[in-house]
Amino acid sequence: MVLFLVGFSILLTIYFGGLLLAEGKVTVGEITEFIIYVNMLTWPATSIGWVTEVIQRAAASQTRINEFLNKKDFTTYYLSSKNKNSIYKFENSIDMVDVSYRYTNSNKVAVHSINFHIEKNNIVGFVGHVGSGKSTILKILAGLITPSSGSLFFDNQSSNNFNWDEFRNNIAYVSQNIFLFSDSIRNNILFGLDAVDESKLLKISKNVSILEEIKSFNQGFDTHIGEGGVTLSGGQKQRIALARALLREPEFLVLDDALSNVDSETELRIINYLKSLRGITIILTSNRLSLLSQCNQIFVLKSGEIIQEGTHLDLIKEFGEYQKLFINQMLLK
Ligand SMILES: Nc1ncnc2c1ncn2[C@@H]1O[C@H](COP(=O)(O)OP(=O)(O)OP(=O)(O)O)[C@@H](O)[C@H]1O
Ligand SMILES: [Mg+2]
């Protein structure tokens, strides 16, 4: 727009200048001088618009960054990382003692008085209706949010006392809302790791049953996801997120409804693979009995509280929510 105005003003200068020249009121030199001055003003005038736009964009971005930095949970963990004990691995067990959590923007408690003990190397499932608090418990376990009251212990060490920045290296978390970047499948799986053996990438992709699908894309692992690339199905996204998590060889894997869009046959293959991994503790949420029945320990949640606990076989015999879920899923079959 500015360039158009500048061009237009030069045309006007030549036109009116020409008329005045014909009348002998100005000289050719004066017209030329005028055009040069107009050109010299072009860049500063253009840059005013450009700088204003950059400032506005930066202000919008800063607002978003501030939103993130002001999140209470994030600052708590960030500040708490300094001068705290470092435990690099957890050896035996995880405990929650009287844990409650209320989201900062809500006046309702999401989970309350949660108590449990989990032994290392087990697969533990949380089940419950929508909004019963499954994801909240998993986020606390993964160190994404801090309990509003009560404590989380790894090997009898309170999570308030150790350095989460370092401890998080033990944990891989697959969120219920998977986020993939508009980038290649490879970069989405590597996600920040740069030196990864190609054979390891192939092996993990095969173990989470996504390799064949990746190979079927024109550019394989280099296929771009999202805008201008392939659109992945929910189940494909979940398996890519799982491959991303497993590539980190975590001690502790947190899966929030991470296989909900995967068919039951593939789900079974994946869970059998996860069970074959040694030294890994898995905490998951699911409403599928096929997956829950593979867990060593199950917690049933209702309105933010644990109402039942046991193995699949114990719980289907016990009158309660789990039995209802079992009967409903059997009837649907
Ligand atoms: N970011 C949030 N801000 C405010 N309230 C939240 C937030 N996330 C969850 N809640 C509330 O906390 C409670 C527990 O939610 P949570 O996501 O843990 O349930 P869930 O069992 O995982 O449900 P779903 O089966 O739908 O995934 C719900 O009442 C929900 O409305
Ligand atoms: Mg959830």
Describe what this molecule looks like in 3D.
This protein is an alpha/beta fold. It has helices spanning 2-23, 28-69, 72-80, 134-141, 164-167, 185-190, 198-207, 211-216, 234-247, 264-276, 289-292, 312-317, 321-332, and strands at 93-102, 109-119, 123-128, 149-154, 157-158, 171-174, 252-256, 281-285, 297-302, 305-310. It folds into 2 domains: 2-69; 89-332, 3-Layer(aba) Sandwich (Rossmann fold). 47% of the residues lie in helices and 18% in strands. It has a 6-stranded mixed beta sheet, sandwiched between helices. A 4-stranded antiparallel beta sheet has the order 2-1-4-5, covered by helices on one side. The longest helix has 42 residues, at 28-69. It is elongated, with a radius of gyration of 30 Å. 28% of the residues are buried. The structure holds adenosine-5'-triphosphate and magnesium ion. Magnesium ion binds next to helix 4. Magnesium ion binds at residues 134-135, 176, 256.
